[in-house]
Structures
1.
Amino acid sequence: MLKEKAGETAGKIWNALSESEGLTAKQLKKATKLVDKDLYLGIGWLLREDKISTSEVDGELFAKLK
């Protein structure tokens, strides 16, 4: 069940990132309407699949598609 949720959440994040040059965690939360734990679950999934890259910008997580 958690694996399905992670994949579904990752899809929401991927879709949001595909429409931009990259987003901060705060922007991703707003765009996807995800709570923190689900947002980071999806980000972890995408990182594991090597679909996104992350960095820190002004003290906040920034993610973009590879």
2.
Amino acid sequence: MYDQPRPNRATPAMTFDQMLEHVRYEGAYPTRERAEAAVRTVLAALGRQVTGEERVDLAQCLPVEAALTLTAQIPDTEQLTGWSFIKDMATRTNTTPATARWDTGAVLAVVTRLAGPDLLARILRQLPGGYALLFGQAELRQPQLRAAAA
């Protein structure tokens, strides 16, 4: 599997500086540095969860600096639910879950626009429950039918 951005990729829809400005606006961050810290933290955490072609395709949608942050991570052997993802980020960054959720929302709002609806749907199908809300989407899952007792 090839986890680094492909060399002949199309130009992303925005530069890294533009991405940071969008995240700064979404998160109401006071500085560009704070927005960059959020981008790097959230994309590193996401890089530990997204695998396969979805990981490669997402990296291609991102500016190079963001793609390298995403793909530099070794995917975890156990996928986290959306809430566990937030708790893990809070623990790793020594912040509160509320701050981790805020950062996630600001960054993933921009990532959602860059990825587009088709790729986002593929990513959400791959991840456990709770991620759709983090990406600003409705959580639409089929209810699991209980097996009838024999």
3.
Amino acid sequence: MGDAQARPRPVDIAYWLWLVCAALLVLFGLLALTSPGTAIREQLVAHGANPDSVDEFIVLLRGSGAVSLLVGLGVGLMAGPTRAGDPRFRRAVVALSAVFFVLQLGLLATGLGQVPTLLVSLLALVASVLVYLRSSAEWFAGE
């Protein structure tokens, strides 16, 4: 486990990136979960969406919001122990960040994703790369 006094700068930068990502994902998730369904329905129908398929889209939107909320909470909770030098949390938060990024790519490709959420997941991926740079990896290994 790493020494807190000799923590490499990329680990600190990754920590703050993950915290920003976590806050934004929680915000996006709460917005998706609490947006009034009638307002979304009216807006979609006004833009030419099939009224029969709007309800399914709203369910998918809320599901995507719930996933964003949970991922945001997970990333936020695991960022601290990772910054403290726990390699298990580092692996877990990196895996969560990578899986969420791939999920967002898939959602965007199907027309169900949103670009801001994809950009936030990309920032989480950048943080993941930072904690695996040589200086960071050596610190986590205790060298």
